[in-house]
């Protein structure tokens, strides 16, 4: 297929192109309580071709591009038509010129596993979980996949890599005042039984707490501790302020040598981008252009040291590219989560959805599970919402403890002043 | 203009029949869905232009078999005359391996009866006013660029503009022992997105467009540029709302979000099978004001989730979920329906041929009422008109709702004060919110520019909407 595409590119007179080939094989399991709902498997191969077209106007160089998906069972006429369409469209796309990734050849080797063995580990970890006294797994879905990719371009780039991905979605339920549930999405590269068991066991503990929760009171401007996934979403806001694409598009106002945080007191954020984080579902050695992702300190005590980005937007900002990284790491703070909990506060681990707007800094979410500490008692709560704007915080503290959450590794809790808590 | 069916799928029809024939020797039920979804997205921003395939593009097949105990599926995208036998053997061995693995671990299967099918043939080709390839990429980019330039010309405070149009041609072929169904239709969506900055404050106005339409969507977009710039400007002066419970009027788009989050997800009947839906306890009972009638269906209205048959080969229907405040029934995929011994409502949808089918919403909306919007505004002593939204989330088990609304216009003594709050988080208990609905306008609008997830994945196209509704809501 690749040879066929290359021949057609040559006959169409395309001199600048990028081709990505992906093969995904997966085993998928769907459970309802202790039974299987359905089983699935897949084997799907895809190609994405980007063609570039250069031109000049008034002495300025421009580079147009257009991307098309190609199916492995397209016949020669269909392939020819797709390439012709992409070439024509690229001619109407007038973007300032930028380079594509320079040539290198590398096959990034990673350990090989049998999908059947990995899926056995996942299924036994989920289904072997013992129910708690009043909590159980309502349903679960597990997707275990091997993703093999190759990226080539007209400069001579040819890189190959593979990656295992494990996605586990669990709904846990508990009976208390009424039956309640919590949702969890656990992402790993190669599945680790002990990590899966620990995660689900923790979810069962939490849903038991939710079954005894009362409505969140109207707490207005109380200090808020965010723990778990909401922390990642807040930190992602700061990561995105340092992205070359957002800077070039004027969405980010971050400048080198200046702080990306507001005037809040407390901890200053130190943030790194990384190609790989141990056990992370995301990432890989290269970005979508085939550029080898570098590890780099982006924020040092809140001060922007380097933007991060792909070849195109880095060229536009006249900086060295880092590659379009997906994993990031934040340095821990000085307070433990328990120290954060010493004074009156609201702690939230689960929102219906965490909504952080990377353009405006607005933060909001409805509380699925939290705890109100009035100075003497810690009471589980649900309902109501936490809202605010990350540009207007009064203080921000990072926990000493760290954890992996999706593509983020860093403090597992944040203590924030400046949010509003609505409730009954 | 006619939207012709996929030649790719037509050319594979006989091969797929052969595959079904080969699988039939081992399985009492076999079906294959073939998809050929293609489209282009054109995007013009202040700083660049992009043209690429639609993110909804897919081309492949999913085979579903029942092995006498339960269902198994295999997704693939390579098939030709020479590989039929190999694919058939792969499906047989994978299904057998799955069942043996479950048996060895002592994991039983949910009792899913064999699907009972009746003979059915459908061959549907829709029509649109203007096919996507009736304009060159250059003409489309030029029109989007002019919208972008117009937005910038209106204000120096505009820092970035994005104009997007995406046309998607959905072509599907469903084959089983008794069914032979094909359909081809086009849906399109467009966005105007204007970012404005004053001092250090950044806000954006956004308007979306959608429908079973082609390039005629560009005409609608061109007429709305000024309004989106004005909105972005207005939001620069917006304040945060004081958290509390208020009288509100929800615009059709916000009403649609409530319908979608409140009783759309809550009545997806795979949730009934999992005992995750509180709605089961309320079937036949009052869950909303008697002014509320709510529908979901791929038949009955024309929006992005209107089709002739779903991804499991069930013909589209128009389901009344709430009739004058009473919860009537849920919406289902075919397997959930068979487990629950009910009839599928034609809501079995897949993100793509690569994913499982679930019970999903299609076009979900409140029916219009008899009130006039101006009377509804005049009836408010203190409250807000809520317009547009960014996102929403449901809690089917406990009926919580989260809606992130773009802005609210303050109303005092029946008149707008000019004060605007943004963004606004609406939360609460679904029946409390729906029972508080006291007025329903005679307007009706649907919008389908976003995507809906199941949990946090499985994105599918849906639309939602209805009239203006007056209710009491907790805002923060």
Describe the structure.
The complex is a heterodimer of chains A (424) and B (476). Chain A is α+β, with helices and mostly antiparallel strands and 424 residues long. Chain A folds into two domains: 210 residues, PmbA/TldD superfamily (PmbA/TldD fold), CATH 3.30.2290; 210 residues, no CATH class. Chain A has eight helices and 24 strands. In chain A, strands 8, 9, 10, 15, 16, 17, 18, 19, 20, 23 and 24 form an eleven-stranded mixed sheet that branches. In chain A, strands 1, 2, 3, 4, 5, 6 and 7 form a seven-stranded mixed sheet that branches. Chain A has a six-stranded mixed sheet with strand order 13-12-11-14-22-21, covered by helices on one side. In chain A, strand 16 and strand 17 form a beta hairpin. In chain A, helix 1 packs across helix 2 and helix 3 runs parallel beside helix 4. Chain A is globular. Chain A starts with a helix and ends with a strand. Chain B is of the alpha+beta class. Chain B folds into three domains: 96 residues, no CATH class; 112 residues, 2-Layer Sandwich (PmbA/TldD fold); 232 residues, no CATH class. In chain B, the strands form five sheets. In chain B, strands 1, 2, 3, 4, 5, 6, 7 and 8 form an eight-stranded mixed sheet that branches. A six-stranded mixed sheet of chain B has the order 12-11-10-15-24-21. In chain B, helix 1 packs across helix 2 and helix 3 packs parallel to helix 5. The longest helix of chain B has 21 residues. Chain B starts with 6 loop residues before the first helix and ends with a strand. In chain B, 58% of the residues are buried. The chains are: A alpha+beta (424), B alpha+beta (476). The interface between A and B is large, with 84 and 83 residues. Strand 2 of chain A pairs parallel with strand 4 of chain B, so a sheet runs across the interface.
């Amino acid at each position: 297929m690749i040879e066929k595409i290359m021949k057609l590119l040559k006959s169409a007179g395309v001199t600048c192109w990028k081709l990505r080939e992906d093969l995904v094989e997966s085993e998928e399991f769907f459970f309802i309580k202790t039974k299987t709902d359905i089983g699935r498997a897949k084997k799907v191969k895809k190609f994405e071709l980007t063609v570039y077209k250069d031109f000049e106007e008034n002495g300025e160089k421009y580079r147009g591009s257009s991307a098309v998906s190609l199916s492995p069972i397209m016949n020669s006429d269909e392939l020819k038509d797709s390439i012709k369409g992409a070439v024509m469209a690229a001619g109407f796309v007038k973007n300032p010129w930028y380079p594509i990734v320079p040539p290198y050849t590398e096959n990034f080797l990673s350990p090989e596993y049998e999908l059947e063995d990995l899926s056995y580990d996942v299924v036994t970890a989920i289904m072997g979980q013992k129910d708690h006294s009043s909590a159980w797994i309502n349903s679960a879905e597990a997707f275990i996949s091997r993703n093999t990719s190759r990226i080539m371009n007209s400069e001579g780039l040819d890189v190959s890599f593979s990656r295992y991905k494990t996605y586990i979605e669990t709904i846990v339920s508990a009976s208390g005042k009424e039956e309640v549930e919590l949702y969890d999405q656990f992402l790993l590269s190669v599945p680790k039984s002990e990590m899966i068991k620990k995660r689900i066991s923790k979810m069962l503990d939490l849903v038991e707490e939710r079954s005894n929760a009362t409505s969140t009171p109207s707490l207005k401007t109380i200090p808020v501790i965010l723990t778990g996934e909401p922390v990642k979403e807040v930190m992602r806001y700061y990561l995105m302020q340092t992205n070359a694409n957002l800077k070039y598009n004027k969405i980010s106002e971050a400048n080198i040598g200046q702080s990306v945080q507001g005037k809040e007191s407390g901890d200053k954020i130190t943030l790194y981008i990384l190609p790989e984080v141990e056990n992370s579902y995301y990432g890989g050695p290269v970005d979508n252009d085939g550029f080898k992702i570098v590890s780099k300190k982006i924020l040092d005590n809140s001060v922007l040291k380097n933007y991060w980005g792909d070849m195109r937007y880095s060229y536009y900002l006249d900086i060295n590219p880092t590659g379009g990284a997906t994993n990031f790491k934040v340095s821990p703070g000085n307070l433990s989560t328990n120290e954060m909990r010493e004074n009156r506060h609201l702690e939230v681990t689960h929102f219906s959805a965490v909504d952080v707007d990377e353009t405006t800094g607005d933060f909001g979410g409805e509380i699925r599970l939290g705890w109100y500490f009035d100075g003497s008692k810690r009471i589980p709560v649900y309902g109501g919402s936490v809202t605010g704007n990350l540009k207007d915080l009064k203080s921000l503290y990072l926990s000493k403890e760290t954890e992996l959450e999706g593509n983020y590794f860093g403090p597992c809790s944040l203590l924030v002043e400046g949010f509003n808590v609505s409730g009954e | 203009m006619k939207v012709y069916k996929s030649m790719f799928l037509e050319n594979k029809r006989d091969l797929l029949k052969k595959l079904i024939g080969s699988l039939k020797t081992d399985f009492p039920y076999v079906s294959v869905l073939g998809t050929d979804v293609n489209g282009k997205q054109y995007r013009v921003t202040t700083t660049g232009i992009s043209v690429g395939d639609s993110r909804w593009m897919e081309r492949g097949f999913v085979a579903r078999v029942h092995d006498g105990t339960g269902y198994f599926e295999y997704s693939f995208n390579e098939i030709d005359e020479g590989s039929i036998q190999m694919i058939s053997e792969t499906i047989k061995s994978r299904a057998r391996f799955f069942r043996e693995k479950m048996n060895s671990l002592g994991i039983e299967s949910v009792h899913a009866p064999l699907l009972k099918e009746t003979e059915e043939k459908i061959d549907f080709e829709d029509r649109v006013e203007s096919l996507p390839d009736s304009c060159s990429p250059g003409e489309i980019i030029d029109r989007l660029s002019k919208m972008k330039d117009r937005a910038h010309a209106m204000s120096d405070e505009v820092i970035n503009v994005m104009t997007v149009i995406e046309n998607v041609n959905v072509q599907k072929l469903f084959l089983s022992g008794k069914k032979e169904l094909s359909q081809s239709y086009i849906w399109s969506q467009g966005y105007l997105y204007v970012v404005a900055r004053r001092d250090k404050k950044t806000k954006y106005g956004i308007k979306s467009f959608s429908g079973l339409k082609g390039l005629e969507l560009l005409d609608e977009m061109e007429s709305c540029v000024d309004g989106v710039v004005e909105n972005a400007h207005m939001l620069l002066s917006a304040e945060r709302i004081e958290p509390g419970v208020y009288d509100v009027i929800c615009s059709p788009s916000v009403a649609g979000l409530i319908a979608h989050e409140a009783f759309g997800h809550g009545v997806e009947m795979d949730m009934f099978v999992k005992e995750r839906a509180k709605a089961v306890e309320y079937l036949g009972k009052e869950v909303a004001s008697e002014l509320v009638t709510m529908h979901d269906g791929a038949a009955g209205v024309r929006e992005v989730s209107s089709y002739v048959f779903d991804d499991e080969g069930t013909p589209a229907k128009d389901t009344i979920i709430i009739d004058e405040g009473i919860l009537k029934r849920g919406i289902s995929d075919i397997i959930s329906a068979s487990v629950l011994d009910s009839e599928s409502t034609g809501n079995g949808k897949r993100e793509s041929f690569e994913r499982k089918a679930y019970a999903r919403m299609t076009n979900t909306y409140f029916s219009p009422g008899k009130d006039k919007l101006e009377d509804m505004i005049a009836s408010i002593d203190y409250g807000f008109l809520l317009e547009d939204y960014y996102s929403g989330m449901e809690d089917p088990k406990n009926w919580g709702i989260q809606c992130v609304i773009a802005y609210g216009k303050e109303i005092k003594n029946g008149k707008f004060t000019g004060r605007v709050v943004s963004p606004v988080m609406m939360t609460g208990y679904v029946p409390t919110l729906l029972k508080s609905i006291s007025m329903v306008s005679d307007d009706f609008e649907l919008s389908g520019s976003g995507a809906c997830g199941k949990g946090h994945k499985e994105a599918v196209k849906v639309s939602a909407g209805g009239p203006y509704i007056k209710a009491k809501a907790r805002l923060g």
